[in-house]
Amino acid sequence: xxxxxxxxxxxxxxxxxxxxxxxxxLVSARSYAAGxxxxxxxxxxxxxxxxxxxxxxxxxxxxxxxGQYQGAYKITKGLLEKYGPERVYDTxxxxxxxxxxxxxxxxxxxxxxxxxxxFNFSMQAIDHIINSAAKSNYMSAGQxxxxxxxxxxxxxxxxxxxQHSQCYAAWYASVPGLKxxxxxxxxxxxxLLKAAIRDPDPVVFLENELLYGESFPISEEAxxxxxxxxxxxxxxxxxGKDVTIITFSxxxxxxxxxxxxxxxxxxxxxxxxxxxxxxxxxxxxxASVRKTSRLVTVEEGFPQHGVCAEICASVVEExxxxxxxxxxxxxxxxxxxxxxxxxxxxxxxxxxxxxxxAKRACFRSK
Amino acid sequence: xxxxxxxxxxxxxxxxxxxxxxxxxxxxxxxxxxxHNLPHNTRISPNPIxxxxxxxxxxxxxxxxxxxxxxxxxxxxxxxxxxxxxPESNEDRVPCYRVLDDNGQQLTNSQFVPVSEEIAVKMYxxxxxxxxxxxxxxxxxxxxxxxxxxxxxxxxxxxxxxxxALSPHDVIFPQYREPGVLLWRGFTLQEFANxxxxxxxxxxxxxxxxxxxxxxxxxxxxxSATIATQLPNAVGAAYSLKMDGKDACAVTFFGDGGSxxxxxxxxxxxxxxxxxxxxxxxxxxxxxxxxxxxDQFRSDGVVVKGRAYGIRSIRVDGxxxxxxxxxxxEAREMAxxxxxxxxxxxxxxxxxxxxxxDDSTRYRSADEIEWWNKARNPxxxxxxxxxxxxxxxxxxxxxxRSRIKKEMLEAIRVAEKxxxxxxxxxxxxxxxxxxxxxxxxxxxxRKTIKSHxxxxxxxxxx
Lengths: 366, 462
Known about the structure:
The complex is a heterodimer. Chain A is 39% helix and 16% strand. Chain A is an alpha/beta fold. In chain A, helix 10 links the parallel strand 6 and strand 7 (203-207). Chain A is globular, with a radius of gyration of 20 Å. Chain B has 3 domains: 2-78, no CATH class; 117-417, Thiamin diphosphate (ThDP)-binding fold, Pyr/PP domains (Rossmann fold, 3-Layer(aba) Sandwich), CATH 3.40.50; 423-455. A 5-stranded parallel β-sheet of chain B has the order 3-4-5-9-8, with helices on both faces. Chain B is globular and about 85 Å long. At the A-B interface, helix 6, helix 7 and helix 8 of A face helix 7 and helix 8 of B. Chain A: This is Pyruvate dehydrogenase E1 component subunit beta.
């Protein structure tokens, strides 16, 4: 038991979500003050931006509908009233324009937090994200750094069709010069967004629309305004010994549900929440697979060249001799996202898919 | 009159938008689209859409229908019963501001900002220096000593005169044909050469192709090859300067081709809305590689586009150093004092090829190039004026030319011999702090080089 508690202390120690989800003995071993407060991801993001704007006058927010409308998803609610129109800037509809302008402001020393209404729209600005932001520090040999954050909902929502459902984690995470983060819980949202705003490099911050309204327990430490999570460290949401399930964002919730179902069948699954897609926490990933010998990776995005592909490659390269089963990848279907509710459900990984894959890895299917 | 109208709260987006419009007396844009002279007996209906329409109709019926003015979103417009399309262009093109004639004689009644002898001589000397530098680097590329080069032949006046009219605190966002601005600010021939040869003294640590200069201390942002992306960047930087209350503006250069990019539209539109202190200087040199301006746009050049965005604009003779100086000087004053963007279209001609990868005789006549090079040369025009003030002479000219030529050849000789950047610079600056995976990769590369030294160039320092 003490071993488990020490493990938590090492990787940040915040296991509020497992408190909510599991009834295992692990819960009673926790020695931190259990967070009796709950917070939605939306409020977590809002409070993070608010606190960082309060602490640093160079931080400002820009995007469509972020000010007067209080944010398309209300993430920036109340900020215009508090900080004024110069620091909460409603932009005209031009992603290419306002992204370029945000990058220019970052060049000149401000710290913009640029909101994309969804990351699908970031494609219209992707040249600025990659060529004007990500590569600038390198191309200018350190003379130009770009302390900018690009944030917004990423991946599938509910019934929004092909042009509003794509996951961009794999695209952005392939670019050197960018940091790419994907929070799951409210604590993730607070800690990672604060870290992103403080970071001197450009950060792509991939949120999830369906998680905005979800409530998570949150500890006192996480509510403190100096709270920050390290970039590049994954979190072990649930410890296990039979199979490692690695994922990020909304799929973490699904993986935890799958782990409960697997526990009923006697399979102990370890669930890892990546939190950071680039840099990828290869150390934690490989240490876990070396412990369990089996790997299942899950993502919502398209399968080819996805985040899961990179995780599998890393494990095969570094922990091949520890594997007892072929690596398993679960991703969204290789089709543009259909709209009809039944088709959409079929096009996205579900809890049953994760359970089946884990059982396959344990040679327990059929 | 200002009674508060509140629509019933609803979760629908449409109602949310109308709710903002219907609340009287609230600040900012809440009631911006409502006419402010509503009569007292305005009908109130539960449906917010009908309500909005009713108030507008009421306004009209209470007005004298002959007055024919109405408040639409955006302000009052008067009506006209004639069906008239605004013509695609004016009969007369926007005139071009110049101070010196083709032969360098000052025009009578010309308005310009006076320049001192010191400034005028520095301007002319720098124009000559730029020309010689371009010549020698171009030749070096032809000889295989440089991989690539792009000259600014014919645009020396734009380069130097604009730089001369700015303050060193003004932040420059170049395209790639403005090294003269760096030259004016003090970048040495050696520094130019170091970048072109990508040696260890290059401020860019050998990361970029030649002519992609950058200098933090001279406020010149590193050249980025993507076209027109620097325009919105400049607007963002201008916004930052405004927020910091600095006595400075952002200045960005681009060509006639660059004005076709989406970023041009976004940047100009935005700069006007944000009231950003930024100068947009377009070098309309007639060609975008092989695309002539007749294939680039159908407007009267670029200057007319400013008005479309609500931006003050001017067309200048880009080959007239005095006109360029005056226009940029005045524009800068307005930008900084009034927090507004200004568009300057400098008409000129690209005498050189687009770059060393281009042979422009394939798409234009050698005669045309020759004519602009000789008859409309910006250097000779300005020299005539400078000499007319007895500030220059043939002797000074030949002294300068031979000195610069010698300096250039020496700079190249030194740059060529200087060591290339160290191997660790392949991995540095990707992030603020090198991440673990890159540190590991560097160790791996070094190990490999150690085991197979014959496969690696011996002149790269490790």
